[in-house]
Design goal:
This is EamA domain-containing protein. By secondary structure, this protein is mainly α. The chain is 64% helix and 0% strand. It starts with 36 loop residues before the first helix and ends in a 16-residue tail after the last helix.
Length: 356
């Protein structure tokens, strides 16, 4: 028995295709032909690939923060999202994609929700880092895959199996083993430098900021899935990047945050890397969520922690501990389990529109 239809996702035949995904099989094969492993798991693989670029972007931001003078987080957001916005507009203009700025009619409200909630998901994480260690904030924000899976079930009427829920819980356990947050492991080494006098009220504010990030990310990922094929991935990213750029620029003006100008070629290179990696990551993530149910797809987001551990070892010589290796193994095993246990698609409708 299939899940009841959600009013947020119309019938497949009412969806206008902008080229992001195909109404037929993703590799162009007929419906009755068996799909290859990569074709049947295209959405999940795209999401996992996106996490590599997210991790690479985080490493670039960390390297950028070590330069003198340091660049404020809001300025990094402005530059990163400004580059993303320009790339989206150039791509859609060259390819002749309709409605490059406003987006297609019928989904503009959901695109607006994606842009605003995405900003809160991004800014909440930066805000939390003022009062929490990176490990604490990471573990709290990685509640997002679980909350997104629940939101997909409630609002989009997507299936959410017990196996997927168990895999998500184990993946979160892997994140905890890698991050080893101070509020669980009691390690004072995880407290960020520069904030030794964080009081209970400030720490509570940091936890609240993480919850804002979780809710923002949940709304963003759920809205991407609700938009589905009705908009090109660049439309989705345009709204996200535009709102982040506008609100971050306004924040810099309101709080009188000075603009840091380039002082070396390395400074410019790292900022470009932040923009390019962020653009690639958001593109792959959007394409993946358009092809995959949120309950299953968000499991692949845990792979970012694994990539961060490897890249930190390569760039900073940080050797992962035994617990980190164990956590990485749990994350990869859980993601692989979800991929291998992919449910067969419901035969609610076929390509020619006849009922199964």
């Amino acid at each position: 028995m299939s899940m009841p239809k959600s009013p947020l996702i119309p019938n497949v035949h009412d969806i206008e295709n902008y080229g992001s995904t195909q109404a037929r099989q993703g590799d162009g094969t007929a419906a009755n032909e068996p799909l290859s492993f990569s074709a049947s798991n295209a959405g999940m693989l795209l999401i996992i690939y996106s996490q590599f670029f997210f991790a690479s972007m985080d490493i670039s931001v960390k390297l950028l923060g070590g330069l003198d003078p340091p660049v404020h987080a809001l300025q990094i957001i402005v530059i990163r999202m400004g580059i993303t916005f320009l790339c989206c507009e150039i791509y859609m203009t060259v390819k002749g994609i309709p409605d490059p700025i406003a987006g297609p009619k019928g989904v503009r409200t959901i695109l607006f929700v994606r842009g605003v909630t995405g900003f809160f998901g991004l800014s909440g994480m930066y805000w939390s880092l003022q009062y929490l260690s990176v490990a604490d904030a990471t573990v709290l924000v990685f509640l997002t895959p679980l909350t997104t899976a629940v939101a997909g079930t409630v609002f989009l009427k997507e299936s959410y199996s017990i196996k997927q829920a168990v895999a998500g819980v184990f993946s979160l356990l892997g994140v905890v083993l890698i991050g080893r947050p101070a509020f669980l492991f009691g390690s004072l080494e995880a407290i960020p430098r520069g904030f030794p006098e964080v009081g209970p009220a400030q720490r509570l504010a940091g936890v609240g900021a993480c919850m804002v990030s979780v809710l923002g990310n949940t709304g963003a990922y759920t809205s991407i899935r609700a938009i589905g094929k009705r908009a090109h991935p660049m439309h989705v990213m345009t709204y996200f990047s535009l709102w982040c750029t506008l609100i971050s620029s306004l924040g810099m003006a309101v709080f009188d945050i000075p603009v840091v100008y380039p002082t070396s070629w390395m400074w410019i290179l790292l900022l470009l890397m932040v923009g390019v990696f962020g653009f690639a990551a958001q593109t792959l993530l959007t394409m993946g969520l358009q092809r995959e149910t949120v309950s299953r797809g968000v499991t692949g987001m845990y792979a970012q922690v694994l990539f961060v551990v490897v890249l930190e070892w390569l760039f900073f010589g940080v050797m992962p501990s035994l617990l980190s290796v164990l956590g990485a193994a749990i994350i990869m095993s859980s993601a692989l389990y979800v991929v291998m246990k992919k449910q067969k698609p419901h035969q609610d409708s076929t390509v020619d529109g006849t009922a199964a």
